[in-house]
């Protein structure tokens, strides 16, 4: 086997944050709930977490690696406190260590070198497994290499069949068991096949063939490990009474086609007899089943089925599609059990991370229910689909936050939609938030008809105070008029639904802005489809008038022409406008493509906005990213609150200044303040600036970042196509730009 190197690049935004200060680094702010400070406020939420142990900081204590299937997010937590405690700190500095992963991910040290490895769903080949081997570099930093093979498809785990090799199958929504199932010292794999009835046993032959523990070579040794079978159409499980025969298959009258896909497997010794038992979760079930092995490690035979797991304590009853994780949670070197939904969209999202502490031994566990909100009780967590908006609601001069949500998924599958108010009880330089109202304006009363609330503030009626517009899942708007008057604590009239009869596509996300500079606030609304809807205010001050047809002039459903076609990753657009250095910018959250930034907006409503950044700040918060910006600490720079589908909020500093004394519109491509030698250039470059810049970057003409540059030092250039590029020198006095011509490379 060989290794394909995974290059862990340090993003230039993060690099600048360390060296120079203000940038797109995370921002920590105190948050209080019920007069208690939250310990993990900005972990970003947790919907469908998958838990593994890993020693991140090399202190000999197992920490937690959590992979949230909702948005494919890595959440590292460092164990603190004494053994037996549940104290953790969120450690986002470790996120960049890990490769991009999808669908599922488990940490297992397969070669016993003390550095944990990653088994996860392949990003290249569906229903396959890729393995990332962990190692420590010369600076003792954790890095990962993709393990590849010299047969079949190099990047995935396979086993031989008659005419070659085929993948070890794992459905994108299943969770396999990565464990030494036969007790021979190497890591095996157990996974349900495509029809969902039997779990195949993929035996690792490394020990038998003396290949060394560092190898992974598999055969399919058993098509029905444990000899049990799961019904193709429901969660029913049947056992076999013969160690050499699979349990009978199933049919069901009136059903046809492939079974519902979705099962989780957790394999470990549950009863201290030295062989491997299994806990199974099913797509349609709110419970777990435990099967006990009456055979052996070499010939597993499940002989006893337990449907009320755990029987001696609080039995699991949690919607839906559960998965169990046998990990050491409290640092006592005895593994405990975490159970949570494995369903990305429909799993229960309140009290949905159950922890059972192990009061027995690691090989003969006794599980005792401890809590149903492990980790999430310390997060700023809104249960799903968070959408922030800043406003000073109590007129104390501090920016508060209103969070729209996609609701709490309850035990019966219903949702409780709501908005949550966070009041700023800090100072103008040091913000601090308290959770003041968890059902602001009683918006949960509208839950039967609506949902996915997206608030925005602005003066709709021209009376000088800020009103509230709320978009919803149906694509309609609520208008909530603030009748308090300017500089007074906001008081609101009852919400008016179907405002102006405007209905766009699903998941309306409005912004209030005078986009055409006529003195009247217009509406710009993002939505699920690839449309950005502009509704021009044709009324007068105090009497706004909107036509409800988005595609009829002066309205348009393609404001800025930012979409080139139907693209899933840029759907669910969430626009937000700021004025930075005299220039109007639009930041735009997306379904799964991060945050875009656009300029050249004025005068271009019906033409194309310019893409300034495609991955603003290299911020990745998963699916359905929303955002709001405000300078909440009066440092002259916008701060950014980012929401996501997991239901959390994360704060970031930004590079966008609120000081308009230096206009970005005044870019001069011929300024003498930035000197480049040579220009045209080929393989290297020397830059000298008269003012020490905050940072220097090289970008292409589309605004995409290529590399950071050094001032007053030689810069070796990467392979570039011949053409024109841009060098940006950013400092506190503004942004200066120079053209760079590359010739002679390609």
3D structure, described in words:
The chain is 1% helix and 37% strand. The protein has one helix and 54 strands. Strands 3-2-33-32-29-28 form a six-stranded mixed beta sheet, with no helix packed on it. It has a five-stranded antiparallel beta sheet with strand order 1-11-10-9-8, with no helix packed on it. The N terminus is likely disordered. It is globular. With 746 residues, it is mainly β. The longest helix is centred in the N-terminal third of the chain and has 9 residues.
In brief, what are we looking at here?
By secondary structure, the protein is mostly beta strands.
- Sheet bearing the most strands, described? 6 strands, mixed
| Ends distance | 34 Å
Give the proportion of residues in helices. Answer: under 10%
The rough form would be described as globular
The Cα radius of gyration reads 28 Å
pLDDT averaged over residues: 90
Give the strand order, joined by hyphens, for the main sheet.
3-2-33-32-29-28
Query: Which spans have pLDDT < 50 for at least 5 consecutive residues?
Result: 1-21, 251-260, 660-672
Counted beta strands: 54
Number of helices: 1
Q: Helices and strands: which structural class?
A: mainly beta
Instruction: Tell me the strand percentage band.
Output: 35-45%
């Amino acid at each position: 086997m060989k290794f394909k190197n995974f290059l862990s690049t340090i993003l230039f935004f993060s690099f600048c944050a360390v060296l120079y200060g203000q940038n797109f680094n995370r921002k920590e702010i105190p948050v209080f709930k019920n007069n208690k400070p939250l310990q993990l406020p900005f972990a970003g939420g947790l919907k469908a977490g998958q838990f593994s142990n890993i020693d991140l900081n090399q202190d000999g204590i197992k920490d937690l690696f959590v992979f949230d299937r909702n948005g494919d997010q890595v959440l590292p937590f460092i164990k603190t406190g004494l053994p037996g405690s549940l104290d953790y700190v969120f450690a986002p500095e470790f996120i960049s260590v890990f490769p991009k992963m999808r669908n599922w991910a488990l940490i297992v040290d397969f070669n016993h070198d003390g550095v944990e490895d990653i088994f996860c769903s392949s990003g290249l080949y569906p229903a396959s497994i890729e393995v990332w081997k962990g190692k420590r570099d010369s600076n003792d930093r954790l890095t990962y290499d993709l393990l590849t093979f010299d047969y079949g498809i190099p990047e995935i785990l396979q086993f031989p069949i008659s005419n070659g090799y085929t993948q070890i199958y794992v459905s994108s929504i299943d969770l396999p068991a990565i464990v030494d199932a036969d007790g021979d010292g190497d890591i095996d794999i157990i996974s349900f096949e495509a029809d969902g009835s039997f779990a195949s046993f993929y035996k690792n032959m490394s020990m038998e063939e003396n290949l060394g523990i560092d190898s992974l070579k598999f055969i399919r040794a058993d098509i029905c490990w444990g000899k049990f079978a799961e019904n193709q159409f429901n969660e029913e499980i049947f056992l076999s009474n013969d160690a050499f025969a699979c349990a009978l298959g199933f049919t069901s009258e009136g059903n046809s086609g492939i079974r519902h896909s979705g099962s989780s497997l957790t394999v470990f010794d549950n009863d201290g007899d030295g062989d491997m038992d299994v806990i199974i979760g099913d797509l349609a079930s709110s419970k777990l089943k435990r099967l006990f092995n009456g055979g052996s490690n070499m010939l597993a035979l499940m002989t006893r089925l337990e449907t009320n797991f755990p029987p001696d304590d609080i039995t699991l009853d949690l919607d839906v599609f559960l998965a169990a994780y046998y990990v050491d949670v409290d640092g006592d070197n005895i593994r405990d059990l975490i159970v949570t939904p494995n369903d990305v969209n429909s799993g229960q999202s309140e009290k949905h991370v159950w922890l059972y502490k192990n009061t027995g031994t690691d090989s003969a566990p006794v599980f005792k229910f401890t809590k149903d909100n492990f980790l999430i009780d310390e997060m700023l967590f809104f249960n799903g689909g968070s959408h922030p908006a800043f406003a000073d609601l109590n007129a104390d001069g501090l920016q508060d936050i209103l969070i729209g949500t996609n609701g709490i998924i309850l035990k019966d599958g219903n949702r409780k939609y709501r908005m949550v108010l966070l009041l700023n009880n800090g100072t103008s330089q040091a913000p601090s938030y308290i959770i003041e109202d968890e059902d602001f304006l009683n918006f949960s009363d509208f839950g039967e008809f609506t949902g996915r609330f997206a608030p925005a503030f602005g003066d709709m009626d021209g009376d000088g105070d800020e009103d509230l517009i709320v978009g919803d899942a149906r694509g309609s708007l609520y208008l909530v008029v603030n009748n308090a008057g300017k500089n007074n604590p906001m008081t609101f009239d009852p919400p008016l639904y179907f405002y102006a009869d405007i209905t766009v596509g699903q998941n309306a996300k409005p912004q209030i802005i005078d986009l055409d500079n006529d003195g009247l606030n217009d509406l710009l609304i993002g939505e699920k489809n690839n449309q950005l809807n502009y509704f021009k205010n044709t009324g007068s001050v105090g009497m706004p008038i909107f036509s409800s047809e988005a595609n009829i002039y002066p309205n348009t459903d393609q404001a800025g022409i930012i979409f080139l076609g139907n693209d899933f990753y840029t759907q669910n657009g969430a626009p937000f406008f700021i004025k930075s250095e005299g220039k109007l910018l639009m930041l735009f959250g997306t379904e799964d493509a991060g945050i875009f930034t656009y300029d050249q907006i004025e005068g271009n409503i019906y033409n194309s906005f310019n893409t300034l950044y495609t991955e603003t700040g290299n911020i990745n918060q998963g699916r359905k990213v929303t955002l709001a910006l405000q300078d909440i600490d009066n440092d002259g720079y916008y701060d950014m609150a980012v929401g996501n589908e997991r239901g959390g909020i994360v704060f970031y500093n930004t590079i966008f200044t609120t000081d308009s004394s230096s206009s970005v519109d005044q870019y001069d491509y011929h300024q003498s303040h930035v000197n480049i030698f040579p220009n045209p250039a080929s393989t290297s470059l020397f830059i000298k600036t008269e003012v020490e810049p905050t940072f220097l970057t090289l970008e292409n003409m589309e605004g995409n970042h290529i590399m950071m540059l050094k001032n007053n030092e030689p810069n070796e250039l990467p392979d570039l196509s011949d053409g024109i590029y841009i060098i940006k020198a950013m400092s506190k006095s503004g942004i200066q730009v120079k053209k760079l011509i590359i010739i002679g490379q390609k």
